[in-house]
Amino acid sequence: MGRKDDSVFNEPQFQEGPHKRDPSEEKAETVLRKEANRGKDSTDELQSVNQEPAIFPGLKQGFYDRDWSCSRCGYNLRGRPFNEPCPSCGHRERYLPTSPVVGGYARWLNEHLKRSTASKGLLAVLACAAAGGPFAVVGAFIEQSWLGPTPLFGFGLIMAGVIAPLVEETLKISTAAFVVERRPYLFTSAGQIMLAAIGAAAIFSVIENLLYLNVYIRNPSEGLRLWRWTACVALHLGCTTLAASGLVRVWRRTIRELRPPAFSLAVRRITAAAVLHGLYNTGAIIWENFFG
C-alpha cells in the first residue's frame, strides 16, 4: 500500500483554497530569478556543446586553424590534426577551438575585447592594487595568528618558510587574478597586469612595515628600519613580479586563443616566488635565533 500522502486526492487540483507551492519550488524560483537578473558580462551561462571534450567522432576530423596551445606543455598545435597527440609531450588535447561567431566563451570574449579601452584597463589596475594590498595584509594577519612565535625548528619554521610565503604570494596577485578569471578583457596589456600586482605588493609592503615597526617591534633600531624599507620591500616587489609573470602567461593565452583561463600555467612561477620568499624567511629566522 502507498502512503496516504500519495493519494490522487492530494493533488493540487483537489485541494481547498489557493495552491501552495512546494518549498523546493520557492528555492528554485529564487535561483532562477537571480540568474535572470545577472549581468550580461557573466560567464556562468557560457556553457556550450562546442566546448565539450572532443569525444565525438565528427569532432575528431579537421585541424587546428589558429594558435592553440597544448594544455600540458604549451606547444602550439596550429596546423595539426585534432586527433593527433602533441608532438612535444604526447598529450591529447580534449578541447577544441570554438568560433568567435557561433557562440560560447570565444564569442563572449571577442565581443568584449572590441569594446575594451585603455582607460578601463587603468581603472582595473588601480582597483586591483588598492584592494589587493589590504586584502593580502588581512590574509597574512590571519596566517600570523595561526603561526604565533617562530621557533628555529618545528611547525613554526614550516609555516614561516613554506606556508606563509605561498599564502602571501598568492594573495598579493589575487585581485589581478580575479580580473583575469572573470573579466580578462579589462586588461589591455600585460604591463597593466604587472602594474596591478606590483602595486598591490607595494601597498602590502608599506602596511606590513608600518605594523612591524610601530606595533610588533618595540623601539626598532635604525638598521632594522632601513632593512625593512629596502630589503623587505625589494623582496616583496621582486617575488610578486615573478608570480605576476605567471599570471601574464595565463592572460596572454586567453586573449590570443579566446579560451577560458588556465591558471595551471602560472603555478610554476608562483611556486618559484614562494620558494624565494620562503628562503628569505628561513634565513631570517636562523639569523635571529643564532645571532640575535
Distance between the termini: 82 Å
Shape label: extended
Strand composition percent = under 5%
Give the helix proportion (percent range).
Answer: 55-70%
Q: What is the CA-atom radius of gyration, in angstroms?
A: 26 Å
| Total number of strands | 0
Biggest sheet features: none
Report the structural category. Answer: mainly alpha
Number of structurally distinct domains: 2
Instruction: Work out the helix count.
Output: 8
Q: Which whole number gives the mean pLDDT?
A: 82
Low-confidence stretches: none
Q: H/E element string?
A: HHHHHHHH
Tell me about this structure.
The chain is mainly alpha-helical. It has 2 domains: 47-97, no CATH class; 113-291, no CATH class. The protein has helices spanning 23-37, 104-114, 118-147, 155-172, 174-182, 190-216, 222-257, 267-291. α3 (118-147) packs parallel to α6 (190-216). The mean pLDDT is 82.
Please supply descriptive tags for the structure shown above.
292 residues
Write the layout of secondary structure elements.
Blueprint: H1 23-37, H2 104-114, H3 118-147, H4 155-172, H5 174-182, H6 190-216, H7 222-257, H8 267-291
Brief description of this entry?
This protein is mostly helical and 292 residues long.
